[in-house]
């Protein structure tokens, strides 16, 4: 990887994952969490799934596999619990969406309900031991990718055919012929729908595989990477990305934690996908940027050329050239000018902070300039601070923070500090002009 931009103290991009602060430090901890949470999460999944409760076991297993993949960012028990609950919720939502789509093509009175009920009853035989074996096997293997979804599609076609066979018993030849036509349409629609959802699910699973080694940038470092398909990616500081080994042959998707710009190589068989948090940005040939740091409330996308499609839960929305949006909780809204500047001004070589607490401005100084400045007086951290400077101008950045937050930069031993600058000096009163001598 080559680096571009001004020289900084960032160091080289690294390709290892730091999980030293992870709550799930090893598999034994994951097993203990599994034993404690499995039944509760399974009950939650089944209550959300209703008649589709047969899928609860698979969804809970996927949640634990996902937690292991994200263990580096899960530093407390509460974070692990929250992640597992969210995964079960999103997994249940996706399963219900798939089921609803299938029912639009294949519902026949009460037959679907009883047929689904048979699967739900069968799911009760699943136990925690079998589920843990599935989780354990998954975390020791590379993600299965699209092959698993092809198997699921095949099973779905077999299930649809069996359903239509049962539905045809006792009906006239006309009824059977009609049922055959419906079954054919159902099979085609199910394959198309499953293939679409399979690509999204396969991409999410592949980029979250625990077998992947992330490539990371350091504070103050901007890096340039050319991916295997010819796509050019410009990484911001404190950013990491994960790319599956079979990119771009079977799956043209990467995951980004941080901020990056993409000039997507056109003319490829597969669309290009960037996964940030739970959002997917899908493009063919275009230029766009993404910002998705852990501290960001959502995912921000800015499109320079072409159009991308953003997918989050059940929400899909196009974002065209010149537009910038925030995706949060499966909704989109336009970014304000300040939000867009703070997220993406780095693409134009600048750092912008508009009237934010000093604590936020300090984080930006560390991220963009690798300047670790302490504030001994914690009451100063809530002061309003602003800056708008070139990425080459760390001294100007410090000066603007001093002025906007009324603080003074200095050193204590080798530590860089901001201290209170004291009361602002009032403007000097204008001098009185000498009184003219009175005429005698």
Structural key phrases:
10 helices; 19 strands; 440 residues; 41% helix; single chain; globular
Notes on the structure:
This protein is an alpha+beta fold and 440 residues long. It contains ten helices and 19 strands. The strands form three sheets. Strands 1, 2, 3, 4, 5, 6, 7, 8, 9, 10, 11, 12, 13 and 14 form a 14-stranded mixed beta sheet that branches. It has a three-stranded mixed beta sheet with strand order 16-19-18. Strands 15-17 form a two-stranded antiparallel sheet. α1 (27-49) packs antiparallel against α2 and α9 runs antiparallel to α10. It is globular. Residues 1-12, 14-20, 104-125 and 142-197 have low confidence and may be disordered.
The number of strands is 19
Structural class: alpha+beta
Range of helix content: 40-55%
- Overall radius of gyration: 28 Å
- Round the mean pLDDT to the nearest integer and report it: 78
Spans of at least 5 consecutive residues whose pLDDT stays below 50 are 1-12, 14-20, 104-125, 142-197
Shape: globular
Per DSSP, what share of the residues sits in E-state strands of 2 or more residues?
15-25%
Q: Report the sheet with the most strands, covering strand number, pairing sense and barrel closure.
A: 14 strands, mixed
Number of helices: 10
Instruction: Report how far apart the termini are.
Output: 89 Å
Order of H and E elements: EHHHHHHHEEEEEEEEEEEEEHEHEEHEE
Give the gist of this structure:
The chain is α+β, with helices and mostly antiparallel strands and 440 residues long.
Explain the layout of strands and helices.
Layout: E1 2-3, H1 27-49, H2 56-69, H3 77-106, H4 111-123, H5 128-139, H6 146-167, H7 173-207, E2 215-216, E3 223-226, E4 232-235, E5 240-242, E6 253-263, E7 272-276, E8 279-283, E9 287-292, E10 299-305, E11 307-312, E12 315-320, E13 324-328, E14 331-334, H8 337-344, E15 350-357, H9 358-369, E16 373-374, E17 384-390, H10 394-405, E18 407-412, E19 415-420
